[in-house]
Structure formats: structure tokens, C-alpha cells
Amino acid sequence: MGSLENDEKLLRRIPLEAITARTLNKIANRLDQRKYLLTDDGQYFRDWRGLLEYADLERDDKESILSKSEHFTTRIVILWSRKPGASVLGFVRALQKMDRYDIIQDHAESILKDCYSVQQSTISQIGINQALTLQDLESLSRNEPLTTYDAIVLFGDSDLDLKFGMHVVERLEQSGKKVFLYDRDLIIGAIEHEAAMEIVRARCKKVIALLTPTFHKNKISLFLTSYALHLQNDPDKMTRIIPVIYSSQHLESEVMKNIDMYSKLMYDTSRPYFWKRLFFSFGDINVHSDLLQMSFPMPDKFVQNLTLPEMSKVNVEPIQPTAVTPVMDPSVSRIESSASSLNESHESFSISSTTNLIFPKTPSEEPSSSSIPQSRVKANIKG
């Protein structure tokens, strides 16, 4: 793959919306960080404000962006991509004017990969109203219909959710399925919720929701799952939802309530039929045995991988027993007096049975549980 300097003609022909959400998110994380030094010529800020100035958007669009508190770069590029003639080259030129050669160097490969993923012949004629994904651009450039997907896979935000989600995606794609991921496949310029809803509604056969205790924290996945459940009531829609239970421990009650009436697929390494049932839902009967292996571990296996300090290396001071002299409660004399006056038929009652009342047990000191640091902290980057 060439360099940005050597592919200027290509960058000029490719519209700005061809940059994927994944590439833009990486660049936006850098540009959304406020820089206080201007460029050497004093003309541009070196953050999202310089990009806003270079993009030369309409006044209303500028005011809209300035009124927000986050996601400045993404909003700028989305609005910029709707302007006639907006190209990837213009975006690269903006980074050069802002003296952000560090970003160009770090992300040149991703930008070129996005550009090369589409054909150059007809891409300039494709509008945002036609193409929603990179696969759409490829299909239209070959004069083919918009892409129809076998499945969209939805999962949560945690590390474990992501690993399991990508495991499912890779296994499906290995079998030849076309899988849609909104953060990987949507082109810039497409409204994320609206575009994903359109694909779920009209161009996706299955919606696979990987349900875990943290699934509900991903608002887009939760929203699209609810939307897919709504479409289930329409017999004319092609979409069918497949709820997959990866870990049922502490699943959000509202999530379980919504899918309770639907047949669910449990991922459990002790049950060898998970992949066979999943592929069968696509009409695949004869699947290679390698694709049926239950190779992804259960959640508790990740916990077992955590290592604790070796006890032999921990110096423990022996605890010397100390004598404790109980303090007689004043009520003892009253109880003894009452006991002596009992009828002989009750002589079997022993004063020792009241010991726990007379001498309350001292609560044993329990070791305080050590606090567990959070494994992930999402930074909220302000402009």
C-alpha cells in the first residue's frame, strides 16, 4: 500500500464519507484533546477547532458544534462529508494545515485502507442516501444491489463482551456469512442509529444479541435489540432475533423480561451443540467440525486465571492466645436467686443454659475485604 503523498489522485476521488467509523474514532480521540498552541503561521488551532475552521461549515452547523461538550471531530466530519466535493484529500490537507503530521503518520495506513476498500470508478457518484456501509460502496461500484447481511452481532462494552463478540463474528465469517458491525462497517456521514435501524429492518436476516451482565450498558446494542424485538411482530419483516446467553448471572431484569418469550441459545462449554444450533438457524446443516469447537472459555475461567500471592512468601506473625476474664453481669445474682426457687420438678433446668444471655459473645473481628480496582475506566474527553 502506498503513502498519502503518492496517492493524492486517489484521495481526491474518494468522498469523505468513505472513511470508516473506526478510523475516524481513532483520529477524533486525538483531535478532541484541546491544544493551546497555534500553528507556526498562527492561522489554525491544532485541535478540532482548527478542523472546524478549515471545513468552512455553515454558520448554523458551526454554532451547533460549538454548543456541544464532546465528539467535536466526529460531528465536524459528518457535516463536512455532506458538502458537495468533500473528499478524503481535503481532510488530509486540513491535518497538514493544522501541523498535525503526527496524526497523518500514525493513521495513514488506515486512511488508505478505507480508500482502497472501494472501487474508484463510480465511488464519486455514490451519495450518502444510497450507501450506508463500506460493503454498499463496493457493491454499487460493481453495479450490484446494496449489501444484504446474514447477521448483525450485538454485544456489551466490557473486555470480555468484546472478546466473545469478536469470537462469534470471526466464526460466522469463517463459515462464509456476511456480518454487520455498526462500529466497523458504517461509513462516515451515516447517522449511526438511523443507518443501523435501516440495516436491521431491511437488510439483515438475523440479529444475534450476546447477553451478559454488562450487555445493557451498551446503549446502541440495547436499542437495536429492542428494535429487533419490535420487528418480530411484523410477519413481513425478514429479521429474526437470536438471544444468546453467555452468562446468565445478574442479567438485567428488563433485558430478560423482553426476551423471555423467545427461544434462547445458551453458550456453555459443557453443551457441545451451541454452534450446530446456531448454524442450523441459518440453514447450514453440514458444517465443518472445526467450526463447531467450543473453544471460547466460560466467564469463570477468566476469574480462575487471576493469580494470588504465594502463601509461602507471606510472613504471618503467630497470634498468642490471651486469657480473658469475663465480667459478671449484675443480673447473674437475680437469675441465680430465681433458679433456687424453682420447683423440684424443674431441677433439670441448668443455669448454664443461660450462659449466652449472661455473657454475650464478643463479636469476632472479620478481615475487611480488600477493595478491587476497576479494570476499565472510560475517559470522558472534553473539548
UniProtKB/TrEMBL annotation:
Record protein name field: MYD88
Short name of any one Pfam family annotated for the protein: TIR
Gene3D superfamilies (alphabetical): Death Domain, Fas (1.10.533.10), Toll/interleukin-1 receptor homology (TIR) domain (3.40.50.10140)
Location of the region described as Disordered in the Swiss-Prot/TrEMBL record: 351-383
UniProt record, GO biological process: signal transduction
